[in-house]
Design a protein that fits this description.
Elements: E1 7-11, E2 14-15, H1 22-37, E3 45-48, H2 50-59, H3 61-83, E4 96-101, E5 113-116, H4 122-130, H5 133-150, H6 164-176, H7 186-204, H8 212-226, H9 230-238, E6 248-253, E7 264-269, E8 281-286, H10 290-295, E9 301-302, H11 305-314, H12 319-325, H13 329-332, H14 334-351, E10 355-362, E11 365-373, H15 378-390, H16 396-402, H17 409-412, E12 415-416, H18 418-423, E13 426-429, E14 431-434, E15 437-443, H19 446-453, E16 459-463, H20 471-476, E17 479-482, H21 490-498, E18 501-504, E19 510-512, E20 517-520, E21 523-526, E22 530-534, E23 539-542, E24 547-548, H22 554-566, E25 570-574, H23 578-586, E26 592-596, H24 607-615, H25 619-644, E27 648-652, H26 666-676, H27 680-689, H28 702-707, H29 709-728, E28 734-739, H30 745-766, E29 773-778, H31 781-785, H32 787-790, E30 796-799, H33 801-809, H34 820-825, H35 842-856, E31 861-864, H36 872-881, E32 885-888, H37 893-906
Parallel strand pairs: 15-16, 16-17, 17-18, 25-26, 25-32, 26-27, 27-28, 28-29, 29-30, 30-31, 31-32
Antiparallel strand pairs: 1-2, 1-3, 3-6, 4-5, 4-6, 7-8, 7-10, 8-9, 10-11, 12-24, 13-23, 14-18, 15-22, 19-20, 20-21, 22-23
Helix pairs in contact: 2-3, 4-5, 5-7, 6-7, 15-16, 15-22, 16-22, 22-37, 23-25, 24-25, 25-29, 26-27, 29-30, 36-37
The chain binds phosphoenolpyruvate (PEP) and magnesium ion (MG).
Amino acid sequence: MSQVKRVYTFGDKKAEGRADMKNLLGGKGANLAEMNLIGVPVPPGFTITTEVCAEFNKYGKSKVVELISKDVQAAVRNIEDIMGTKFGSDENPCLVSVRSGARASMPGMMDTVLNLGMNDNSVLGLIKRTGNERFAWDSYRRFVQMYGDVVLGMKPVSKEDTDPFEEIIEDLKAKKSVHHDNELSASDLKELVKLFKSAVKKQTGKDFPSDPWEQLWGAIWAVFNSWMNERAIYYRALNNIPEEWGTAVNVQAMVFGNMGNNSGTGVAFTRDAGTGENIFNGEYLIDAQGEDVVAGIRTPQQITREGSIRWAELAKISEEERASQFPSLEEIMPDVYNELFETQRKLERHYRDMQDLEFTIQDGKLWLLQTRNGKRTGAAMVKIAMDMLREEMIDETTVLRRCEPNKLDELLHPVFDREAIKRATVLAKGLPASPGAASGKIIFFADEVENYSSKGEKVILVRIETSPEDLKGMNLAQGILTARGGMTSHAAVVARGMGKCCVSGAGAVKINYKNRTMVCDGKTLSEGEWISLNGSTGEVYAGQIGTKDPEMSGDFGDLMKLADKYARLKVRTNADTPHDSVVARNFGAQGIGLCRTEHMFFEGDRIKPMREMILASDETGRRKALEKLLPIQRKDFEGIFEAMQGLPVTVRLLDPPLHEFVPHEKENQKEMATEMGISPEAVRQKVEDLVEMNPMLGHRGCRLGNTYPEITEMQARAIIEAALNLKKKGIEVLPEIMVPLIGTAREFELQEKIIRETAETVFEENGIRIDYLVGTMIEIPRAALMADQIAKSAEFFSFGTNDLTQMTFGYSRDDAGKFLPIYLQKGLLKNDPFQILDREGVGQLVDMGTKRGRTTRPNLKIGICGEHGGEPSSVEFCHIVGMNYVSCSPFRVPIARLAAAQAAINNA
Ligand code: PEP
Ligand code: MG
């Protein structure tokens, strides 16, 4: 046992541990060791291994003391030697921090204890060293408070209890008639130390330990005990972290940036986290503690001279004033700056990623407290990765793995001005249904949007929920806000398709159509007032906020090319118009995976023949109306086929319940009656007949085409004729005709028969032929189960995971918004299954459908066209089950391309 090394020291650019010893030293300990090894000045310290934690749990305290006390004493002496300090000294006291540190980061673990080593002697030493009595007593009282809470168990257990220390502070503040902690004087703080200690005595029955060694051992036991506390056990269970891992203990010398004008503290980035530019940058403050930089009490200064000059220009500060009042670190402490500059370069090269670092200068000596991979914007993410590839710091697969697909979104949509958004007021929060930023005047009725937009005014369409009738208004508005509906609600799906900003399901927004008002956060907003939406976060803001168009840099294009090099899955798009098709092709879509034909029926006057068809009392009446629809559909398809220039296009036959198309308002019913030469009462009656209890499970999908074959006939004719017309112009088209919502093989076969017969007739009429495919959506569980039968005739499958999720879970797509948020909050579900494909359940059906389909037809082309097709984890699943492509809304195409590359790399 004595052979085992249990305590690992680090400091003075030496370390006994290494980065790859995370299992033994924990993440934090390994990283502190590594920084020393590469020559970074880190406050010295030591790590007690995770194995000792296991020994502590097995054999208890006294055995562990026996095992490690010699090593701990030596390690503390090492800290004292490097820092020139002494535990408990009244001249130059050694103060340390004590932290836990497991292999994986565990937020449920012990809080940090700072300033350990403080007692009535060392406080005097600290006063001597800093000349700052207030600071020394404040450090002391914070230590007693932290140690009392964390180590001596004074922290309140229940929500109702108050922290005894906070109570004492409040009493003293009341006595002194001050409001804030920083108004307490040095002698007040000294008084607090006394009061805190007697509170400890009262509650624990023991004196507060004044011996630094006793303090240190107490803190070490507290870290080990925290491994078995309730929070940590819960966290481990949730994240599958084994109990035997244990935690390490990190003890490290404290350094102070507030020891006068030769000290300071700051934060820095090795590259610009906003733009990705390769320039070192950051802020610092002289004579300050870490939190002062972020607290905004004093104006932090720039680290580099170049940054300082740029900053002054923006802040409209003259060069004289800048140089005298706000000089850079580079100017006032050139040696420290040079060391910092070299250190940041070293850290970035070592970790091969942009670093976000914290440093402290104590008496002219630089110390690095932390380094980590820096958070960055989407634009910076792409630029930094591509720059580092060119600089040969990282390879292609690292570039692709490191770029987060969802963050690409920021590059594709307008964004709010970063400064303006900081001042904006949030009114409500809904679902981030479709990304982007939009400001406009509130309008409640879709048909009124045009009145404003035609005058060049910006509008946000605010609805309880949207329906297909609102399509035009949605298209003309800057953004859409709905109070109801989830991520696959009509508003969300349509807005994503349009690339339009949308916040859906903002339940806190109460809309009153009659008064034309919306109430949220206690404020009433009327029609015409400005609001702003952030479709990427779901936030709704009051007033107008400036937006700017993002720049599509060359790096973005290069990243996409790289993604395609590694991806196996193809990426198609869901598009219903030539415009969307062009947008998607520009984003790199390799075909259309879903063209929802019904969306075309709402534009302009088209709805009239559609309504006529639905309201007709017999087949003759329907055929008459369908004749009017045929040229319209044919023209639409020609436009889409042309836009896709020979790439495959999957056209889906009519799918939604018919009642979605019929006129619900009296006025529209009257108009239709005149159009059709029947009575308004007959129209009303027919509309009523179409009402269904469960329309999503009712007369829709292929059930329409099987009951009214003439609809399928017309649509098949429109598709084939459009393709032939283009062929005559020399443009190749590969239509893939898709039957929706089948549950039995027979349902498909009947539709296929109509399609193929119609195609033959059209070929004969025109004297030319084209190739085309007939396939089906798999979106009813039974279809997935019967896939081998269905694949006998279906030439391709496309998984409609919106409906498949709805029917597998039994959650209505339109109503799930009412309970899903609660389910997520209570942990009944990990994710919203309409957003992230449920691999466990729905995924089984997808996997089974794919396998069974291919037992019959080994080369069966398989894709997905539900909303999941653009969501990275779902894309990975599609890769794993062996699909050929995913299809998603145009603005998600780049995201899916990157996710497809990651899936290929991570599952190679
Ligand atoms: C689906 O159900 O996944 C699908 C793509 O079809 P829709 O959303 O139009 O029902
Ligand atoms: Mg569907």
